[in-house]
Amino acid sequence: MKIERLSVRQLQWLIWCGVAMIVFFSTVAEDPLAQALVYMMINVSFYAVIIYGNISFLYPRFYETGRRLEYVIYSALYVCAFAIGRGYLAISIYNHYFAKTPEKITWPLILAFIAGGALDFMMSLIFRIALAYFKLKQQSEEIKVQKSKAELNLLKAQLQPHFLFNTLNNIYYEIYTEAPRSAKLVEQLSEIMRYFTDETPKEQVPLSAEIGFIQNYIALETIRLRYGAEVRLEQELYKDFMVPPMLLMTLVENVFKHGIDPQINKNPVTIKLYDQNGYLYFQTINAKVERAGLPHGLGLKNLRERLSILYDDQFELNHTEENGLFIASLKIPVS
User: Fold this and answer.
1) How do residues 112-133 score in pLDDT, each as one tens digit?
2) Which among 46, 56, 172, 268 is placed 20 to 30 Å from 104, CA to CA?
3) CA angle 205–211–214, rounded 5-degree value
């Protein structure tokens, strides 16, 4: 397994195994095997406690939040407490199991353990930098892989629609002389799909392109209805504004999902679009269909969340019922 493919967790296990082996083989030459194993476990455990206590708690809790003095004080207390504890534990085990004559705990010995703990603490900073570097390198490699996949997917996405559009164009010319109306529907379907592939990835598109997409969508939805629908689009625009793609479609979709009764031959729908005082107003008006009532799908919820991200609180999205009509209104700022 190559190092570049190791996870952060695997790398840490590898490091600690290496530390344990170094500690063990540095003591086994002078001490019995059992004593070397015990000292190795005690020392490595305390190394881990001091290092992870710093990089996982003290450093992010105090240093990174600007509480530098508290970080120094708590770090000193932390190191002293665990270093003294490590010293007492090591000497107690040594006196109880291995020593021929018990060894006394003296201040020089305690200070030596504290100095060792301070060195461990300094190592924790190096350990943290090494882990941060490894994570950054790993993320960089993942970004390269994702970029390669994205480029490949983009190439596929470009090739597939290109083939599909050419096929639709061939079908259009084949049926144009025999069935002009059907050919027109194929053309509208092609325009809708072209809008999805070319315009929706953009952050903003011309309002005229969005309106053209809506008109094609209405035409294709209408032919699905047995008795059709009477859709009137009223526009009063003084400028071709830039708007986020597919922003107006949710309200139009709701009209055909919830405002059309397929059992009747008159389904009047009015769509109004106008700008005033730096705002774009979009409104759909349709008869209230008893079977549908007020739509509760995810469409309006997702639309409201998207509007909040795009415009913060500078938009209005409302729905009302008046005289048997369902009215949905959207107001967004434009410039």
Assistant:
1) 878 877 887 887 777 777 777 7
2) 46
3) 115
Is the domain of 126 the same as that of 214? Answer: no
Burial class (CB in 10 A: 0-12, 13-18, 19+), 17: exposed
Residue 177 CB partners (closer than 8 Å, separation 6+): none
- Count Cβ atoms within 10 A of the Cβ of residue 164 and give its class: 0-12 exposed, 13-18 middle, 19 or more buried: middle
List, for residues 206-265, the tens digit of each pLDDT value.
Answer: 999 999 989 988 888 887 777 778 899 999 998 899 999 888 988 998 888 888 877 777
| Residue 143 and residue 7 share a domain | yes
Pairwise CA distance, residues 72 & 125, whole Å: 13
Is residue 103 very low, low, confident or very high in pLDDT (cuts 50, 70, 90)?
confident
Q: What is the CATH number of the domain that holds 239?
A: 3.30.565.10
Q: CA dist 146 to 153, 191, 292, Å?
A: 10, 31, 44
Same domain, 143 and 7: yes
18 and 133, same domain (yes or no): yes
Please state, in angstroms and rounded to a whole number, the distance separating the CA atoms of residues 106 and 310: 68
Q: Are residues 208 and 329 in the same domain?
A: yes
Residues 216, 141 within the same domain: no
* Sheet with 279-287, edge to edge strand ranges: 230-236, 268-276, 279-287, 325-333, 316-322
172 lies in some domain: no
328 in any annotated domain: yes
Indicate the helix (H) or strand (E) that contains 164.
Answer: helix 107-176
Q: Which domain holds residue 283?
A: 203-333
> Do 13 and 122 have their domain in common?
yes
Between CA 94 and CA 103 the distance in angstroms is 8
pTM (predicted TM-score): 0.49
